[in-house]
Design goal:
single chain; globular; mainly alpha
């Protein structure tokens, strides 16, 4: 990657912005789920670094998110329950994700610039500037407050960090692979190292939060758009791999949630006490998705909340916003089979 003074300035601004915005949260105490996962969790109390303490910290409390839990254990090892260390790690993760996002957008715009159908080419300075402001807007968006300030939500931040890193490494690997075929660069023959890094980053993302199970689908779409130029014949040729990917996602979901979805849903508190039905949840979720997308573009403080409380949708037209949300989702292709259920 080429590095210049503009890029250096952009990175300094991203780092400074992250610390300036969240610098006043460094003494925020443990709250809500923080208490269960950290102070009341004996497994993260790492007194020394050895195999047993590392395994206990990673899977003793919950085996679903070992990477994030291990990070809490390392925080305890370095500063026990001093919240300063926990918040610093959260802020660092957020800033690193912003920097990775900057490089990922820059690489993606460069790829787009090289597409045969691109009418107006962008110069390198324009690409870097667009990438910087994209990353900056993501970094400073108030909707990120919960994942940075609420310590236990590090799970989401770490998942996002490794997710973006995996996408970036995949794109770099594909570029190197193409160059190796064209014999442009002798170093490109080691492109498999990029893919190995992508695979490891994907595992780390999945070990941080289960939502990273969607990474293969994102890679598939990225490949189709930027490297296959939306070739429908390529889609047909990849059908068997698509089936394998879907099965893989299903297996991962099964390992995490169990292979009896009905039993899993019935065991959830809301369903066990009859708070709402599956149909009401699906209908309500349409409004939830549209609301959260709206928060990205209009994160007014009055609309931000740690735990939103949505009234239920009892039918397609009760309330009418249910139908309008589904209509907008269909119009803009917001939904797919995997994004309906949170």
């Amino acid at each position: 990657m080429k590095f210049n003074k503009y890029q250096a300035l952009y990175l300094v601004v991203l780092i400074a912005a992250g610390f300036l915005i969240y610098g006043n949260t460094l003494q925020t105490p443990f709250v809500l789920d923080d208490l269960k996962a950290i102070p009341d969790n004996p497994f993260i109390r790492m007194e020394e670094l050895n195999a047993k303490s590392i395994i206990d910290a990673a899977v003793g409390y919950s085996g679903n998110r070992p990477v994030a839990m291990l990070s809490f254990g390392l925080n305890y090892y370095l500063g026990q329950y001093n919240v300063l260390g926990y918040h610093l790690v959260n802020i660092f993760i957020h800033i690193i994700t912003g920097i990775l996002f900057f490089y990922f957008v820059k690489l993606t715009l460069t790829l787009s610039n090289q597409q045969p159908g691109t009418i107006q080419k962008l110069n390198s300075n324009t690409i870097e500037t667009i990438s910087f402001f994209t990353a900056l807007l993501w970094l400073v968006n108030p909707i990120q407050t919960q994942s940075v300030t609420y310590i236990v939500q590090r799970m989401s931040s770490m998942g996002a960090m490794f997710f973006i890193l995996a996408l970036f490494l995949y794109a770099k690997g594909r570029i190197a692979q193409k160059r190796s075929v064209e014999h442009v660069d002798a170093r490109s023959r080691y492109y498999f190292l990029w893919f190995a890094g992508c695979f490891m980053s994907g595992l780390l993302a999945l070990g941080s939060k289960e939502s990273a199970a969607m990474l293969p689908a994102f890679i598939f779409l990225y490949e189709w758009y930027f490297f296959q130029d939306l070739d429908k014949n390529w889609i047909k040729r990849q059908f068997k791999y698509t089936v394998i990917t879907v099965i893989l996602i299903g297996v991962v979901a099964g390992l995490y949630l169990g292979f009896d979805p009905a039993d899993k849903f019935n065991s959830l508190t809301d369903y066990a006490f009859g708070e709402f039905t599956m149909g009401q949840r699906l209908l309500t979720q349409a409004r939830v998705v549209v609301f959260y997308l709206g928060l990205i573009f209009y994160p007014n403080p009055s609309r931000l909340n740690l735990d939103h409380d949505f009234s239920l949708s009892y039918s397609l037209f009760n309330p009418i916003t249910t139908f309008l949300s589904i209509e907008q989702a269909h119009k803009h292709k917001i939904f797919n089979k995997n994004s309906v259920i949170n």
